[in-house]
Amino acid sequence: MKKASEELVVDLKSVSKRFGDQVILDAVDLQIRRGEFVALLGASGSGKTTLLRILSSLDHANSGTVRVTDSSTVVFQEPRLAPFQRVWKNVLVGMKTIAANKAKALTALDEVGLADKAFNWPKRLSGGEAQRVALARALVRTPRLLLADEPFAALDALTRIRMHWLVQALWREHNPAILLVTHDVEEAVLLADRIVILKEGRLAVDIQVELERPRRTGEAFAHLTEFLLAELGVSKAEGSPSAAQPRLPTSLRPSQSGAAA
Fold this sequence. Notes:
The protein has 7 helices and 9 strands. The protein is α/β, with parallel strands linked by helices. The strands form 2 sheets. A 6-stranded mixed beta sheet has the order 5-6-7-3-8-9, with helices on both faces. A 3-stranded antiparallel beta sheet has the order 2-1-4, covered by helices on one side. A hairpin with a 2-residue loop joins strand 8 (194-199) and strand 9.
């Protein structure tokens, strides 16, 4: 398994967020080190998007301590490309010196397999190609932290698989920490080396994924997937939350040290 460096890129302590009387995040503690690939799971309304917005400085906490590296980028579910800019210029959106960084943009596009699309207009790209441009835009800034908000949700199944391979290859090459927000439990198990679950604004599970890469479905994969689904209130027994929760093999049992009490 890939080992994370000692550099702490996310350090949240007792972070809470409220909207009026509604508590969205309740005393969340979360630490992520550079090189970690972390997947964040949770039902709708559990606080995932709010947490990501706080980490990306799009929102603020009401209380607690938030420390995030100043070298971070975000990939959203929608690629958000500027329609009247060529593809290579979209990679550099927000950077002050566009012309001086053209070579970096072309290199980033080559890394995501789009060197031949650099001078196209965005409307000529497929959905998967547009999302690869968004990924190149994030990577060209050489971030220490990459925040990904369901970036594969709108893609078809085959394109998702290709994006999974690409993201893993780029992660190994560039060594950022990645925090992936997803509703897809199997996607989390496939990609991440650590999975956290938000329940009602609190971290209820924080588990290391001790599965060798490249990952394939099998008994350990299935056990972990079932465990996570049960934690999310889903069971194979007709989706009944009250069904008996699967027990993990000892090697895959979660450490409770990272989860909220």
